[in-house]
Design a protein that fits this description.
By secondary structure, this protein is of the alpha/beta class. The protein contains 6 helices and 4 strands.
């Protein structure tokens, strides 16, 4: 009998998307190494449209709109699209859970997506994107 282990999956935060795209970013080399390790380990990587929007905006500011547009045109990563229930849950959590008071709505939406999918691993270089699930 074969073991039916679920595939490994990791959420990719905007901070990692930016670090991978911007060779001038202080965390670029570490992000590239981490990306290779995740791929070599068989992780399926995904992000949300909110992380893509955040990364695009950050890249536009740091590298310019044209390079950000090129990055967006070439982006190849699975996207999880949050539904109305995800939005409702994230909004409720952000306004009622004091532990999330310093989080952005984008972070809480992304954490909600991870929880919905049962994903506990995140690829992020933003030290503030530590996730406590459970």
């Amino acid at each position: 009998m074969s073991s039916s282990r679920p595939p490994l999956a990791a959420f990719v935060d905007a901070s990692a998307l930016v670090a991978l795209a911007d060779r001038g970013d202080a965390t670029h080399e570490g992000a590239v190494a981490a990306y290779r390790e995740l791929c070599d380990a068989g992780y399926r990587l995904f992000t949300t449209e909110y992380a893509v929007v955040e990364a695009f905006d950050l890249l536009s500011l740091s590298l310019g709109t044209e390079l950000a547009r090129q990055w967006l045109a070439n982006l190849r990563i699975a996207l999880y699209h949050l539904d109305e229930a995800d939005h409702t849950r994230a909004r409720h959590r952000l306004v009622t859970d004091d532990r999330l008071a310093t989080r952005t709505l984008t972070d809480v939406l992304n954490i909600t997506a991870m929880e919905r999918l049962g994903v506990r691993d995140a690829f992020a270089v933003d030290e503030h994107f530590t996730v406590e699930l459970g």
